[in-house]
Amino acid sequence: MNTSNIVSPENLVYAKPELMNDMYMHYCPGCSHGTVHKLIAEVIKELGLEDKTIGIAPVGCAVFAYKYIDIDWQEAAHGRAPAVATAVKRLNPDKMVFTYQGDGDLAAIGTAETIHAANRGENIAIIFINNGIYGMTGGQMAPTTLNKMLTSTSPTGRDVQTMGNPLKIVDLMALLDGVCYATRSSVHTAAAVRKTKKAIKLAFENAMAGKGTSIVEVVSTCSSGWKLSPTASNDWMVKNMFPVYPLGDLKNI
Length: 253
Hints:
By secondary structure, the chain is an alpha/beta fold. The protein has helices spanning 33-46, 65-68, 81-91, 103-109, 111-120, 160-163, 169-174, 190-209, 223-226, 230-244; strands spanning 53-57, 72-75, 96-102, 125-130, 133-134, 140-141, 179-186, 213-219, 248-252. The chain has a single domain (24-252), classed as Thiamin diphosphate (ThDP)-binding fold, Pyr/PP domains (Rossmann fold).
């Protein structure tokens, strides 16, 4: 149904972003990816960057971003999105280049690429979805997995004595001179969604202004990996994830 014929502008509460493709999302119920996709599409449109944006999607749930947002995309090997983004941006300095990565991708196999791209101050934006687990491949423990958190490879809980501490990689990145903006947000409430949209918009503006690397970490849920309902996942995230990964700006130059 074409709602534009029956809904007057002043009564329109929400409309599908123009850059979102006409296809159903495959994500699990309660997954944060879909909300973040829509925010990215809205920001690109509002900034007038539809023909100037190139997204880099690596391996994991994040790989499917190219199916839903109607912009130019480039695939990258697992963890290598910042390296690919570096090349794309340097070859196309007038483009707005961003990566869309999960925590297993960015903070595990891609740690080196992430740190060194940020340290060089590449003029890219990084959207980082942190749900503390490898969601796509079976719910294994990730570097971001919390202490005592149950996963398929830590069935009795993560033991920091043998498995190390949760990796707060955005805190590390905020210390790098090449990083101009590092922030942590979420999309579990309407207010949080609005804050995340502002963060993504600033990151994209920074990339176009040549200010260096911006990273927006979105603390998220993984209902399937956590074996919880969407509602219970949100509650668990607020109670357990936020104390370890507190929301707010870590750096803003």
